[in-house]
């Protein structure tokens, strides 16, 4: 455990230093938000400070990560999505342009090294996806795994990005996700069940604990509304979450157990937007936290509810097999849909009164 304690403490310290430095820099060069745009009565605060998550991770990786082909690709694509998202924060790209960039990132990493090779189902058996391939530029490309990988990345990018409606939500959820993934592999390490995945397991545990350490100070600053996340933070965290889920031995079900509330909410919101003939990629105020705010829940109540449920489902998933995790996700889906239905009914009754 000491192997991960030093990186963890180093991540917290470096993160604190970089947040303070970048925040002061952005204040001096006037990279500040416009609180009146969101009907908030506070002073402008720095936004896109979350670019320092990538900077912190990059610096720490040089000291604590054993570099080989995959880590270099992760840093490369993580840097690209962070840089593009930072410029998006500055100039506001269209939803279609953002989607195209997300597809390109998912395709690029899927073609180079990381893919979803199979899909589990509730009955315990798996569906192999290595059924069709083609040769492009002398390289064999497996089409179906590539498509599933692109869909996974685009889904996580957007689902995590849509959690950034109240401050502290995205950073807290991401922190819980990476912490649960670390606990999962540490549990396997204690039982020697990770022997066949030793290289990936040690790599995943290290980057997970680094991100947990980096995110702790960010959560504090985010929750206290001293900085804003915006896309430069959510896109990198989404990229890392999607990637870690795959290279962890396809622990997608575990990630969905933690992140399931917003995964289901993302699907729910997309369906409602399509039913109302709206652009499913264009932001609005219909997400779970927005609907709870409309029912006079406070920010603290919403974060406590979401974090408690996410951590509970995540820890539960640590002790379940593949089928159990899928059942947990189904329970989450039913819960979120039922909760959304109840909130709609309450809103209609309140409106009539």
Please render the helix and strand layout as text:
Elements: H1 2-28, H2 51-64, H3 69-91, H4 95-112, E1 118-120, E2 126-128, E3 133-136, E4 139-142, H5 143-161, H6 169-190, H7 198-223, H8 231-247, H9 252-275, H10 288-294, H11 299-318, H12 322-352
Antiparallel strand pairs: 1-2, 3-4
Quaternary structure:
single chain
Helicity level, as a percent range? over 70%
Number of helices: 12
Beta-strand content bin: under 5%
Q: What average pLDDT do the residues reach?
A: 80
The best one-word shape is globular
Number of domains: 1
The helix/strand class is mainly alpha
Report on the biggest sheet: 2 strands, antiparallel
Give the termini distance in whole angstroms.
58 Å
What spatial order of strands do you see in the largest sheet? 1-2
Q: How many E strands?
A: 4
Rg result: 20 Å
Write down the secondary-structure element order.
HHHHEEEEHHHHHHHH
Runs in which pLDDT lies below 50 for 5 or more consecutive residues are none
